[in-house]
Specification:
120 residues, two-stranded parallel ribbon, 2 strands, RNA-DNA hybrid ribonuclease activity, RNaseH_sf, RNase H type-1 domain-containing protein
């Protein structure tokens, strides 16, 4: 939505310090799914001149706190409230190939094999 509105800077607030720190890149994302979300945030953030992801405690964010309580009570969604249930992650999990670190020596040998007249 921010991109469609032609905004140049975005500030995101979240009530999970762990998520805010991992998605902003301040903390490492050891979980593959969180690492995938971090990469997706980096891609989206590339459309803006600047972006921030900040942790806002629930005591300072009454709206998020109220929504989380509604969600845990499993009551009907109030009027004028949008609900989007995600049954699957919205990002693609990395495969073993994505996570593999390329071996530079093997790449050089492969290149020399393809172009045999090269000399090293």
């Amino acid at each position: 939505m921010a991109k469609e509105m032609s905004l140049s800077r975005v500030r995101c607030h979240g009530d999970s310090d762990l998520v805010a720190q991992q998605v902003s890149g301040k903390w490492d994302s050891s979980d593959p799914l969180m690492a995938a979300y971090h990469r997706e945030v980096d891609v989206v953030a590339g459309h803006f001149k600047g972006y921030q992801v900040e942790h806002i405690g629930r005591r300072k964010n009454e709206v998020a706190d109220a929504l989380s309580r509604l969600g845990s009570q499993r009551k009907p969604v109030p009027p004028n409230t949008f609900l989007d249930v995600l049954h699957n992650p919205s990002v693609k999990l990395p495969t073993e190939e994505d996570l593999a670190v390329p071996d530079p020596e093997a790449q050089l040998v492969a290149a020399l094999h393809v172009i045999p007249d090269w000399t090293v």
